[in-house]
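Lab notebook, page 48
Experiment: co-folding of the full assembly
Goal: obtain a model of how the components sit together before planning crosslinking
Operator: M.T.
Materials (sequences as entered):
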Amino acid sequence: MASRRTIDLGRARRNFGALMDGHRYRWTELWLLLLPAAFMTISVLELSIVHTQPQIINRQTLPPLEAFGPALGLMAALIVAHLALNIFAPDADQTLLPIAGTLASIGVIMATRLGPDVGQNDLGFKQLLFVVVGLVICVVTVRLTRSLGWLRNYKYTWAVVGLGLVAVTLVSAIRSFNTNAPNRDVLSIGFGTGGLTFQPSELLKICLVIFFAGYLSENQEMLALARFKVGPFALPPLKHLGPLLVMLGVALLMIIGVRELGLALLIFGLFLSMLYVASNRPMYVVTSLILFAIGAIAAFGIFSYARARLDIMGSAFDPAVEPNQGYQIVQGLISFASGGVFGSGLGLGSPTITPAATTDYIAASFGEEFGFAGVLALIGLFLLLVYRGLSIAAQARDPFNKLMAVGLTAVFALQTLVILAGNLKVMPLTGVPLPFVAYGGSSVIANFIIIGLLLRLSESDT
Amino acid sequence: MNLSDLINGGGPFGFLFILRIALVVILYLVILQIVGVARRDLRRAAAVAQIPGQARQVVGHLIVIDSGTTKIPLNSRMDIEPITTIGRAPTSSVVIDSGVVSTDHARITYRNRSLWVEDLGSHNGTYINGRKITGPTAVKPDDILQVGDVRFKFTV
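Observation: model returned without errors.
Model output:
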């Protein structure tokens, strides 16, 4: 134990030496991090002008310190994370932290701006706290997963831990099973008067990606060759898929139990993308999609909640249907529309008319104040995140690493797709948080764990 | 036009208007810069691939189906090039760090559209499908190659 510690310190010192030489220094990352810093500075400037009297600028209306707090805090946190990555993962991808940082800075700025309007003045600071915790856990993840072996070796443990966490919340969910209220699987931890809430399903996603990656990489050959060969390994694929399908089935049932339909879609989607990458057989995907369609039709028959969601989407603008049913969807669309091309300007719109403007409808709030141009940029940032994730997967040599990168990237891609499509009334609305931007601790922290894993995967294979 | 009008943001060139546009522009700058980095990465990868003599032709793959006592991860996939050497030497194409593997243990060559395995006079021999080989032996996909206590399967 003692000797291992010495070696680690030696390595850290060497890396720190390289950092000082400027040889392996992550200059690209530092340069890219300047942009979110500029974004936050200008945002705070605009916010403070808007929040004070906009008529005159003089000494009294200089930006108040509170508005600068979250922005300065996030800049400092990003720089510290950047320095830590220089020591722990000097060769890791240099664009992931800036992309996540830009998205997180949009989230912190939006929380700062929307907080006072929804009666929570410290919303920006709270979101900053989540991002800081997320960045710390991200660096810890990079450090702990130096060898990815232990993730792979304990794949069943991970799956069981993830499912166990959700099972705890299932108990309270069952009580309200037959109401149509959207039910979030929130685990409340009594903490004085405040209380800390935590959504275990956020961690379930990561646990399942690790399990699927571990299982599929071990059975990859059988999956791909089962059609052709009757050799020693060509057992029916169903037998190899058994544990996989059991895990997937249990996860989906539990999620439907806690009524997170968006999450069920997400988990199924990431399973499909990983299965396709592992087997390279489109037929598996087609078969799964047919099964999914049957399952979805059955779910709509059984759960009034799912039916209600689809009905709301179809009849949002219909005045004959129960009034106010589609209020949220309609207000969200009005938000987007009133933003126009360049938006109303940060702090100059009124996005909080939409319910859940800081969480599920953060994209609509952003769309109102930054406009179509801003939303396109936001989608562009998510696209780049997915591009970098998939290129890490493409460069990975080890099948486990490859599958894990694919699965983790799919989490971002599907989450963004589901919530943006929901906000735009293209799909039934389900409460999936927009990665990094939506207000909420569990989601931000889980997303930074994913960034940490992707950073590690990008370093171990180049 | 006085200063307060500018700040008010009423006109198209108001201060707030400029800030608003600047925010969106910064978001696009982030995208532009990251695309630039991605392009540099791709160019670098292409440059590495184009160095003469470095061009790698992959004619098949070896899948580790039994790592024996070594630390090679199970199921890892290794490229077979027209000449692939297996052994303990760090210069081998496939390095197996094991006491029962010779420095230059075996060689896989690609001739006449098929793969041939030959033993390079190793101490413990090279096995194809459990049989020790004595000379160059043609292999086909799904054959099992054993070097020391590590077993590979050939795939395309």
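Interpretation: The mean pLDDT of chain A is 79.
Next step: discuss with group before ordering constructs.
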